[in-house]
Amino acid sequence: MKRYFFITLLFTLILQSCSSSTENIEDDVDDTPDTPVTITKPNILLVIADDVSKDAIPNYTEGSIKANMPNLQGLMSSGITFDNAWAYSVCSPTRASIITGKYGINNGVIEVNDEISSSETILQKYISDNTNNAYATAIFGKWHISNDTNDAENMGVNHFAGISKGGVQDYYSWPLIENGISTTNTTYMTTKLTDLAIDWKNAQTKPWFLWMGYTAPHTPFHLAPTDLHSQGNLPTDDASIDANPLPYYLSALEALDSEMGRLINSMSDEEKANTVIIFIGDNGTPNQVAQSPYSRRTVKGTLYQGGINVPMAVSGVGVNRMGVRESTLINSTDLYTTIANIAGVSSASIHNSQSFYDLLTDENATKRDYVYSEKEDAYTIRNATYKYIRFDDGTEELYNLSSDAYENSNLIGTTLSSDASAAKTALITEANRIRS
């Protein structure tokens, strides 16, 4: 192109010098850039916060004492805050639902310590298979859907570093698994996982999908390093011997936000501009630190709203709806197809996963009619208004979430309105379809 430019310019100058006319002659010069601009696939950062419901998270009305999380608030103000995202009541089935796009009844992971089948096509492999291996993939932090420390990489993740179990005994001395080998690490866990993620990210030469499974603020409620939180000086480093564990829990949640911010800020401006970030909690708040309107009986481990209605925000490249709230029903399974769409796969529905990719730009995009969750002894399903819970012993509960958002008045046993009766029938029919 440059050679063509100079030859054209020289030819024009010769013509000008040989002409007796004083009329200006315009050069017909191609000013197209020499090197075509390459549009690369977006990077994808998925941050899963452990044991985090809406009561301690900014930008939600639940709870009165909020963690200081400026980085998450920045994502919310530049993207979408989801009000009705449903996960599972404990961590393993939520993580399995995201990575398989299937409900627990279909992937075999319904409770803690259930193990995923090695025959599942996990999200990272699905993306690789359908994009000609366009992405580098990694999981850092909590795996907890099988006991084999090599399963993540055997199933298609390029790199794994973290823990295979649900938690650790000490966030300052914990078993780090990397390259299939476990060693004791004494760096605060949230910080070390972020260090590893940054190092891995910086070494990549193609678009990346980084699954960041932070473990804290899961119990034990240990005080995070002082420079990572705003809870100040507390009586001890261990909340187990303090009457009020909430500040310790908040310190870990604020440390998560600080380190997530460090991870984001480690990107160049160009890299950051080409990255989509998804933040989601994996299940409800532990009962020791639950805040009103939730109670100890409606949080982690239960199918009530405080146990399964988790915070979620999406921001970054391709998210054109800025600072908005979205009331659409979202299932944790839906991240499978949505993330695949971000990576360039066109499928709108896979297994039990329905993409909400179009919602990132269009508030009128197709939306779910129902969301579903389950435990070993019960299941629950809801539509835009009503929520139904059925236990294995035959006990039923029905709530109008529009007028009773925190499930104080079970409608079963009362005279149901025609609307409530029709909704109950529809919910049971859909649940039976899902579970058949």
UniProtKB/TrEMBL annotation:
Signal peptide as annotated in the record: 1-22
GO MF annotations, alphabetized: arylsulfatase activity; metal ion binding
The Sulfatase N-terminal domain, residue ranges: 42-345
Keyword match Lipid biosynthesis: no
Keyword NAD included in the entry's annotation: no
Keywords: Calcium, Hydrolase, Metal-binding, Signal
InterPro entries, A to Z: Alkaline_phosphatase_core_sf (IPR017850), Sulfatase (IPR050738), Sulfatase_CS (IPR024607), Sulfatase_N (IPR000917)
UniProt family annotation: Belongs to the sulfatase family.
Protein name: Sulfatase
Source organism (scientific name): Polaribacter porphyrae
